[in-house]
Design goal:
The structure is a single chain. With 131 residues, the protein is an alpha+beta fold. Helix content is 18%, strand content 50%. Strands 1, 2, 3, 4, 5, 6 and 7 form a seven-stranded antiparallel β-sheet that branches. The chain is globular and about 35 Å long.
Length: 131
């Protein structure tokens, strides 16, 4: 087990990943995943906040012919209107941003309402309760 964590640590260092991921929740959706937030990435302007989130999946996810185990997402949250949108994302072949970057996209998406009781609501609460 120690070797696994050492390898994981070296992977973080070798990929220049300096995010401090804080666990914000878990879900059984999509075969099970853990959601993390990078609290140091929080940037607040007025009623809007931007923050990086990471979804670490228990089983391989497949989207448009691409397989991945983790998804890093830059989101913008509207604290007043209780909505969010995806600004950018990166998909990685291994857990916790490890392995190869298999796809990335950087184009703001449409605003979506936050669903009560969801992981998205937990993320929104973390982002909007900051500073």
């Amino acid at each position: 087990m120690k070797k696994f964590f050492l390898a994981l640590t070296l992977t973080f260092i070798s990929t220049s990943t300096l995010a401090e991921w804080t666990k914000v929740g878990e879900s059984a959706n999509k075969g099970g995943f853990t959601a993390y937030a990078d609290l140091a990435s929080i940037r607040k302007v007025g009623d809007r906040v931007k923050m990086w989130a990471l979804f670490d999946y228990e089983i391989v996810q497949k989207v448009a012919g691409v397989e991945f185990l983790s998804e890093k997402i830059r989101r913008e949250y509207d604290c007043k209107e209780k909505q969010m949108r995806k600004l950018a994302f990166s998909l990685f072949s291994w857990n916790m941003e490890g392995g190869e970057l298999v796809r990335s996209y950087s184009q703001p998406q449409k605003w979506e309402a936050i669903q009560p009781g969801s992981i998205d609501e937990t993320e929104w609460e973390v982002a909007c309760s900051s500073k």
